[in-house]
């Protein structure tokens, strides 16, 4: 089972008061589908955001949900006007001369529905909610648009009573994520008029599970001088893998029951930055096309990792600078309110363990025996590695991670 808990918060303060699992991802999706045009921009934004975060936090774990962040920021553009709206959508990677704004929101509407409803075997809950100061008058047009395109709602909140307000928001997210995401809101350090909460919870089940009895304590080499003990999961099975001849890394692809695909990428020692800098749509596609299927001894640490990231600086570096200044124009949200973004806080939690669905054993044991007699290759994720999780039907980047220390 792969269990991921994630939430993203966007705080606005007042100024005054690709694809099939191993084939071309485009083959899985009807080209006429509204969400189809979102995939290139969303994946490009995902890798750009990920690289900025990795560069800003050297030597640390990084774990984010790019498509969920894209969805939250695109939704906020419905309440923005003028250059603020243009900056938001262009910052997300959309060329507004080629893709009309209406098509962007229609695409996210379809994508949101697909991610929530198309795969019953992959447990996923995602969405957005706005908590607005009860003294402000929400514009009905904005409320209708966020409900129509993003299935979101706006809730009146008394931010003067922060204890009560935080309890309201925590309970909302807890209920939406089946109790998996809790206690999000710290003490308030500034007056607030609006908080956008974006949440996603994912639980996947491996097609090929790890045997819990094979998990044992082993060394994980955090760096040349630091080693920690971790429970290391093991399986010996027919697995998709690649020794990359272009980049200094090895990788394996594991699948969920349903639409989830996971790449575990193991850079050669000292080559993490080289591999991360090369991450792109083309690299992922090349990997998908180049994977081999063979017997593999696979070792992956059983981990639980959490992290909180303030995305304000990163988004500013990516071109969304006016959002955080008095130049911001969110006049489409509420009457008589000058709102600007003060914080973009992203929280994520990753749990990896052994659980999966045992594959049925097909008749014809002779073929299986011949396969097992071949000498298996071995890949051990006992040093820093990269993890990417895609929904291969929509080719959405659900999660991107860099695991430096699994403890």
List the helices and strands and how they pair.
Blueprint (H helix, E strand, L loop, with lengths): L1 E13 L23 H19 L5 E3 L1 H12 L4 H10 L9 H17 L5 E11 L3 E2 L1 H11 L2 E5 L4 H15 L17 E11 L11 E6 L5 E17 L5 E7 L4 E8 L4 H6 L3 H10 L1 E10 L2 E7 L1 H6 L16 E2 L3 E14 L12 H9 L3 E4 L4 E7 L4 E8 L4
Parallel strand pairs: 3-5, 11-15
Antiparallel strand pairs: 1-6, 1-14, 2-17, 3-6, 4-13, 7-8, 8-9, 8-11, 9-10, 10-16, 12-14, 16-17
Helix pairs in contact: 2-3
Description of the structure:
- The chain is an alpha+beta fold and 407 residues long.
- It has 2 domains: 34-204 and 305-351, 2-Layer Sandwich (Antithrombin, Chain I, domain 2), CATH 3.30.497; 212-301 and 373-403, Alpha-1-antitrypsin, domain 1.
- It is built from 10 helices and 17 strands.
- It has helices at residues 38-56, 66-77, 82-91, 101-117, 140-150, 162-176, 272-277, 281-290, 312-317, 365-373; strands at residues 2-14, 62-64, 123-133, 137-138, 153-157, 194-204, 216-221, 227-243, 249-255, 260-267, 292-301, 304-310, 334-335, 339-352, 377-380, 385-391, 396-403.
- Strands 2, 7, 8, 9, 10, 11, 15, 16 and 17 form a 9-stranded mixed β-sheet that branches. It has a 6-stranded mixed β-sheet with strand order 5-3-6-1-14-12, sandwiched between helices. The protein has a two-stranded antiparallel sheet with strand order 4-13.
- Strand 16 and strand 17 (396-403) form a beta hairpin.
- Helix 2 (66-77) runs antiparallel to helix 3.
- The protein is globular.
- The two termini are 18 Å apart.
- The model is unreliable at 1-8, 11-32 and 357-373 (pLDDT under 50).
């Amino acid at each position: 089972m792969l269990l991921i808990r994630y939430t993203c918060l966007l705080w606005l303060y007042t100024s005054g008061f690709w694809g099939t699992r191993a084939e071309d991802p485009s083959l899985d999706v009807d080209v006429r589908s509204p969400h189809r045009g979102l995939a290139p921009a969303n994946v490009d934004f995902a890798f750009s955001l990920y690289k900025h975060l990795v560069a800003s936090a050297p030597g640390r774990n990084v774990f984010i949900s790019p498509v969920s962040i894209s969805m939250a920021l695109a939704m906020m553009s419905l309440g923005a006007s003028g250059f603020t709206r243009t900056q938001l959508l262009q910052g997300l990677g959309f060329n507004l001369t080629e893709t009309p704004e209406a098509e962007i929101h229609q695409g996210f509407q379809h994508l949101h529905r697909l991610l929530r409803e198309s795969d019953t075997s992959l447990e996923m809950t995602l969405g957005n909610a706005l908590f607005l100061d009860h003294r402000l008058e929400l514009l009905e047009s904005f409320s209708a648009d966020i409900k129509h395109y993003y299935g979101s709602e706006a809730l009146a909140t008394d931010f003067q009573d922060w204890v009560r307000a935080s309890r309201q928001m925590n309970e909302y997210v807890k209920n939406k994520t089946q109790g998996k995401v809790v206690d999000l809101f710290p003490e308030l350090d500034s007056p607030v008029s609006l908080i956008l909460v974006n949440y996603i919870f994912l639980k996947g089940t491996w097609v090929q599970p790890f045997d819990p009895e094979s998990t044992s304590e082993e060394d994980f080499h955090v760096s040349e001088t630091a080693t920690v003990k971790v429970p290391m999961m093991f399986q010996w099975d027919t697995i998709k893998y690649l020794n990359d001849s272009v980049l200094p890394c090895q990788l394996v692809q594991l699948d969920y029951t349903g639409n989830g695909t996971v790449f575990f990428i193991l850079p050669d020692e000292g080559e993490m930055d080289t591999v991360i800098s090369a991450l792109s749509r083309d690299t992922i596609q090349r990997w998908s096309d180049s994977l081999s299927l063979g017997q593999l001894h696979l070792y992956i640490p059983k981990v639980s990792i959490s992290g909180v990231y303030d995305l304000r600086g990163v988004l500013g570096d990516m071109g969304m600078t006016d959002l955080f200044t008095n130049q911001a124009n969110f006049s489409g949200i509420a009457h008589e309110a000058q709102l600007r973004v003060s914080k973009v806080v992203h929280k994520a939690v990753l749990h990896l363990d052994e659980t999966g669905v045992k594959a049925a054993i097909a008749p014809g044991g002779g073929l299986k025996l011949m396969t097992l007699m071949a000498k298996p290759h071995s890949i051990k994720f006992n040093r820093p590695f990269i993890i990417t999780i895609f929904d291969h039907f929509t080719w959405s980047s659900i999660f991107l991670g860099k695991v430096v220390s699994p403890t």
